[in-house]
Amino acid sequence: MIIESLHISNFKSHRDTRIEFDTGISIIIGGNGAGKSSILEAVSFALFKQHTSKRIEQLITIGQKRMSVEIQFTANGRTYRVLRERTKTSSKAIMKIKEGGRFQSLVSGDKQVTLEVQNLLEMDGDLFLNAVYVRQGEIADLIDKTSSEKKQMIGRLLGIDSLEKAWKNLKVILDKYNERNIRLEGKIESFEDFETEFTVKKDRKRALALKIKDINLKRDENIIESDLLQEKKEILDKRSMEFENANTLLKSKKDFQDQLEKSRKDLEGQLNEIILKEEEITRIEPRLKKLNVLKSLAEKSKELKVLQKDKKGIITILNDIERFEKVLNENEQFYNEYSELDSEINNLQYAKDQFEGSRMLIQQYTERKSKIEGKMKQSLKKIRDVLEKSNQVLGTSFASVEEFENHLSTFKPQLEAQIREASDSIQDIKRELSNLQVKNENLEKPINELEQVKDQCPICKSDITPQKREELLTDYQSEIEDNQEISGTLKVRLDELESKKRILDSQQSNIQSINLGILKEYLKSGNDHQQEIDNINSSLQELQKKIVILENIEKDIQNNRSKLAAIKGNYEKYLTALGSLESLGDYEEHRARLDEINAAIRDLKKNISALMEIAGDSVEDLPGEIAYLEQLSREHQHLLGQVSQKESLIQRIDENQRQIREINEELDQIQKVIDDLNYNEEAHERVKNEWKLKNEELMELSGQKQLLVGQLDQLSNSIQEIEQKLDSLKKYEKELKNLKDFLKLLNIIRDLYGKDGVQKDLRNISRPLIEEKTRELFERFNFEYSDVRLDEDYDVTIYGPSGESSLDMISGGEKIAVALALRLGITQVLSGGNLEMIMLDEPTIHLDAYRRQELIDLLKKMSIIPQMIIVTHDVDLEDAADNIMKIEKEDGVSFLVES
């Protein structure tokens, strides 16, 4: 899979970010918290709906209602586009495929899209993350962590930790079912005595049934006698009730008669009081005639005071208007001058605003220039350092990159030719030595045969003389010695050539460690910085001219402000007077209102004089006289209200007398009824006692029956429970057998998930594959090692010129190469060997400066994977990038900086 583009909207801190990806190494760079890692998470969300937030709603930018992520990628030669949208309550997903230059819908819905992506990429979300997503610190961990920690980390990537988790979780399930097994065994043991208990309780049930039958016979006899007494008692109860009701009614009527007599006396007393109040009303009424006159006089006097107060206020306003008009006339000239100056200052201020940013720009350009000069010094220092290091490696003293590059262009081919020549010579000598060794071995064979068979030729098997035998032995031995002498000479030459080749290989290794590309980049960076400094200097000259204009404008503004300050007091007096006049109103209207008030005052004074003549002496204490008469008026009204009840009171007296006559007649009738009843209380009490005793006897029999019935029901329930338990015993026995079989199966399954089960098989299967992929990748880095091996704990052993070496015995750069190859090897295995894209999150984190630089150098040389996306805050990684995308955040919003 190759990612072509990504568009994220309202996703976490990204409001609207569009990124176009390309093949090669793409760097997504930015400060901590800028929103870099959110881009990788958006890729995972778009493809598999996987995210790191606790709730999916937290992916939506705060304050927004909807977010969306759209990714376009190629896989298996076809182009696809996946769009996922999400609100607080709903989601949408659609996957399209490119056909004939246009995208057509393939599937829709979250589950369907995720399933289609899984089928297309042949991996689910977890496998995708483990395969193509290298998390922060993983490369450093493969170098620095202990064997057990590395084994655990690789196990997590392979999914072995999930098997370990399943193995542990199955222990919880096993414990639960083992507890169930123990409880079932205990229950079955508790059922042993139930059959004996069942027989005993059945016998007790039959005995209780016979007792209940005897009690029922006795109870029937007592019920007949009780019914006869009940009938006699009810007759006496009814007569007793009638007697008591008549006595109660008699007492109630007598009580009512007493109340009527009391009411009669009260009503007659109230009537006498009303007659006295009628006399008081006749005495008060003549004195109330002056009250209205006095009230009218008081109101008119109050109105006169209000008008006089209004008159005084209007006179004050008229005087203020005349005073403020005089102030306006005195300060009008200053007001006009102030307005003109203020307008001129505003115009100058506008002109100043056009140049105001020049100072800030000068400061920014100066700071930018200083930073660039610092970077330029760093680039020059890096050039000097690399040149110095390279000169030390080659034993040269070149002062410029051009000289050094020219030297390498001729030196490297010569060196490579010398290495090839030495290698060819070494191979020729080794072949010649091998041939000599074979010849000597072939000569040793006939010598051995001659020593064993002294009279026969070892070649033709014919008989030979002792002299011939000695001659043959001498010839064979002489030839062997000649060959050994030649071999000795060749070995000396071989040692010389191998020593020479090691020196040449060392020189070639040193040359390969020299990175001319980075020197050129540093030179280009320095030239770019110098060009930018020249541009800044030009801009600073133009800004200085604007500063001169700005300073002249500021002087003019200051002069005009001094003039304003001198006349500000007069200007403010004018504004104050103008505002006061506007609030006081029209002078002529106030004048007309004053005339109206004077006319009204004259009319009121005439009315007051007329009322005072009518009131006479009462005017001397007008409030007191009004208060006294108002109190007298209230008493008069109160008396009128009481007297108005006289007619009603007379009617009530008549009604009271009628009720007294009726109650006397009713008392006579009730007394006659009591006499006719002839009720005997003693005979009634004797019948009630007999009935009570008989009922108590019945209650006792019923209680005995109820007790026995309760015991019988309890016994029946107990027998039923025992029957149910005996039925359950068979079920428990069957359940226990099934449970034991299930526990055996669970133990087998748990053993499969254990370290010696599937986990071990998975490690044994994956380790050789990872080892093979790691070896293939490591070989591409051109180190002098012939093999890389992984043991069962994934500890690395490498083999080279000096033999076997562990990870601790090799250089920092070689460690980084091994770690990177191992991690990419794991990725290749997880992806089925069809890896086109990988994402690295902060790969240089936790690495020291040296190892960080080594990793950067390795990444620069890599062409292993078509597309590599790296998220980092390390600016040094820019040197390894084919594409650079900078992410920044302002006011909580992340965005892609346009290059």
Describe it for me?
ATP binds at residues 12, 32-38, 136, 809-814. The protein has 899 residues and is of the alpha/beta class. It has 18 helices and 15 strands. A hairpin with a 2-residue loop joins strand 6 (91-99) and strand 7.
List the helices and strands and how they pair.
Blueprint: E1 2-11, E2 14-20, E3 24-29, H1 36-48, E4 66-75, E5 78-87, E6 91-99, E7 102-108, H2 110-121, H3 125-132, E8 133-134, H4 138-144, H5 147-158, H6 160-190, H7 194-284, H8 291-394, H9 401-452, H10 466-513, H11 516-584, H12 587-615, H13 622-643, H14 646-677, H15 681-753, H16 758-779, E9 787-790, E10 796-800, E11 803-806, H17 812-830, E12 837-841, H18 849-861, E13 867-872, E14 883-890, E15 893-897
Parallel strand pairs: 3-13, 3-14, 8-12, 12-13
Antiparallel strand pairs: 1-2, 1-4, 4-5, 5-6, 6-7, 9-10, 10-11, 14-15
Cofactor: Zn(2+)
Family: Belongs to the SMC family. RAD50 subfamily.
Binding site for ATP: 12, 32-38, 136, 809-814
What are the main properties of this structure?
single chain; 899 residues; alpha/beta; Rossmann fold; 6-stranded antiparallel β-sheet; 6-stranded mixed β-sheet; 15 strands; 73% helix; flat
In short:
InterPro entries: P-loop_NTPase, Rad50_ATPase_archaeal, RecF/RecN/SMC_N, Zn_hook_RAD50. By secondary structure, the chain is α/β, with parallel strands linked by helices. The protein has helices at 36-48, 110-121, 125-132, 138-144, 147-158, 160-190, 194-284, 291-394, 401-452, 466-513, 516-584, 587-615, 622-643, 646-677, 681-753, 758-779, 812-830, 849-861; strands at residues 2-11, 14-20, 24-29, 66-75, 78-87, 91-99, 102-108, 133-134, 787-790, 796-800, 803-806, 837-841, 867-872, 883-890, 893-897.
